[in-house]
Amino acid sequence: MDVRRRPTSGKTIHSVKPKSVEDESAQKPSDALPLPLYLINALCFTVFFYVVYFLLSRWREKIRTSTPLHVVALSEIAAIVAFVASFIYLLGFFGIDFVQSLILRPPTDMWAVDDDEEETEEGIVLREDTRKLPCGQALDCSLSAPPLSRAVVSSPKAMDPIVLPSPKPKVFDEIPFPTTTTIPILGDEDEEIIKSVVAGTIPSYSLESKLGDCKRAAAIRREALQRITGKSLSGLPLEGFDYESILGQCCEMPVGYVQIPVGIAGPLLLDGKEYSVPMATTEGCLVASTNRGCKAIHLSGGATSVLLRDGMTRAPVVRFGTAKRAAQLKLYLEDPANFETLSTSFNKSSRFGRLQSIKCAIAGKNLYMRFCCSTGDAMGMNMVSKGVQNVLNFLQNDFPDMDVIGLSGNFCSDKKPAAVNWIEGRGKSVVCEAIIKGDVVKKVLKTNVEALVELNMLKNLTGSAMAGALGGFNAHASNIVTAIYIATGQDPAQNVESSNCITMMEAVNDGQDLHVSVTMPSIEVGTVGGGTQLASQSACLNLLGVKGASKETPGANSRVLASIVAGSVLAAELSLMSAIAAGQLVNSHMKYNRANKEAAVSKPSS
Q1: Is 283 a known active-site residue?
Q2: What is the C-alpha separation between 371 and 368, in angstroms, rounded?
Q3: Which one, out of 40, 375, 382, 469, has a CA that is 20 to 30 A from the CA of 589?
Q4: Mind spelling out the 3-state secondary structure of 116-130?
Q5: How far apart are CA 12 and CA 152, in angstroms?
Q6: In which pathway does it act (predicted)?
Q7: Residues 214, 234 contacting (CB under 8 angstroms)
Q8: Cis bond upstream, residue 165 (ω within 30)
């Protein structure tokens, strides 16, 4: 049977018919009560407070006359009944939905925006921005909507859900549909909510709090979005994800999730231990190249790493009336005699956050204060921010003329290329090195030591200097940093400073072997908080043996993860540079970074 968006004669797909706009405007929750809503509210408030006062007065009199409290008169019984009734009404937020659901009938408009809420600034904006699209009738999004329920063929015998082949889409023809589509049928309540979201009377962001079901909220938001935009989300998965786990911490207003494949490079032999490194990426050849570098390192005895620094930074900006006053605060903060007092104020915000240093910079009458602190196994941005706020509050006592312009003044510097991170470091500063044997360079990497050393000097050092690079004296460190960050639940945006890296190569042992190293001064990682607690990312951390907080030594797991990132960058740098030196870069990407279908089509027939 050919399924069309408009029902034809014969068997049709039935869905619940949405109520008309006239019906919606004609029916209100308050219609269930015999009196106007404002009279009911006034009556319940009056009864509630009157009976409370009456009962308290009676019980006080009984205590005074030693009369048992359980001996009640008829008036007291009536007062108790009135108290319970009025309390239930008020508990149900003026009782309309509660009374309807228990006594009268199911609510037809439980999502109506309250009068008080409509008068807020947000409500006014929503009313002014109400959409005029006739989405309910002009656009049928049912074929691409999330399967909240399934369609039923209108036949006396066909009562079970069926899966029908989907036709070529009419409205969403630019997006391929699956071969079979489950046709959803929305219930009365869900359909009403979707229409309210489309109309703008219910904010999309409030669905989770109103429904109490994060997955249902995502499904309703998704359907509303499809109707508003006229675009299909059929290729974006909805099922198979725990939406409760991201509520209030990872993502707002979800409509699905993106699938990114995770590959494994390794084993990476680092500091005497083997690690299988998870990499989430859609770039072909990246995992394979990193894996080849891991093999070369393993065959040469492994790599070693050294942690140089471990401290997250936050730099607020404050302003004074004169530059002289700004300089006075700078001298106060950098005076070693005051450090312990400032540390006490800073450290009270967390049992892991410990102030390490404060460095200041002045621009006119503006002062930038760069606080650095340890953060345990957390990446630590929130931790250091809370500590900085405590210090600012403390400084207001001695510097009441200090005007705090912003908690972050970009002297930190977070998620931006900055020389201060390259020079001073931020997060974990790591150096990782290995000596690759000459025969491994020839057999595994398919090149020679001399070619690698020359290429590194002309490409990573001289070429980057010619480009005016800032922390970018490497081949592709950000590729590996980002892939590992996504796989392990780090903040992908912090690859900007975390990818600061200088790759060095030098011939050793009379030119027979290759010494290769990467120096990365600002790797920002954590093993607790944020996306690290999601199931998939937590599994990748568990694979590396650094899941959660270290019970023996606070911060040990995050430091190991930073070393693994540096070691993986070392392997990837080694492999890519070898491919370039051997002239294999294009061939490798043609083999691993192109779809098989395309390769098959372009391959000449024999």
Answers
A1: yes
A2: 10
A3: 469
A4: HHHCCHHHHHHHHCC
A5: 9
A6: Metabolic intermediate biosynthesis; (R)-mevalonate biosynthesis; (R)-mevalonate from acetyl-CoA: step 3/3
A7: no
A8: no
Find, among 402, 379, 376, the residue nearest to 391 by Cα. Answer: 402
Catalytic residue (choose from 415, 446, 459, 515): 415
Residues in the chain with pLDDT values less than 50: 1-26, 95, 98-99, 102-185, 599-606
- Could you give the dihedral angle defined by the CA atoms of residues 93, 98, 103 and 106, in that order, rounded to the nearest 10 degrees? 130
Please name every residue paired with 506 in a beta bridge, in sequence order, or none if there are none: 515
Structure token digits, residue 212: 């109490």
Catalytic annotation on 415? yes
Query: Whole-angstrom Cα distance, residue 129 to residue 111?
Result: 18
Report CA-CA distances (Å) from 531 to 250, 493, 524: 6, 13, 14
Cα angle 5-148-118, degrees, rounded to a multiple of 5: 95
Helical H runs in 426-544? 438-443, 449-456, 464-466, 477-488, 495-498, 535-544
pLDDT tens for each residue of 348-399: 988 899 999 999 999 999 999 999 999 999 999 999 999 999 999 999 999 9
How far does the chain reach from its first CA to its final CA, in angstroms? Answer: 42
Answer whether 364's CB lies under 8 Å from 324's CB: no
Structure tokens at 76: 């007291």
Q: Are strands 317-319 and 403-406 parallel, antiparallel or unpaired?
A: antiparallel
Contact yes or no for 264/571 (Cβ under 8 A) = no
Tens-place pLDDT, residues 75-87: 888 888 888 888 8
108 φ/ψ angles, rounded to the nearest 5 degrees: -100, -15
* Catalytic-residue membership of 70: no
d(CA 519, CA 148): 52
Catalytic residue among 213, 283, 433, 506: 283
> What is the model's pLDDT at position 595?
57
For residues 459 and 475, the answer to whether their CB atoms sit within 8 Å is yes
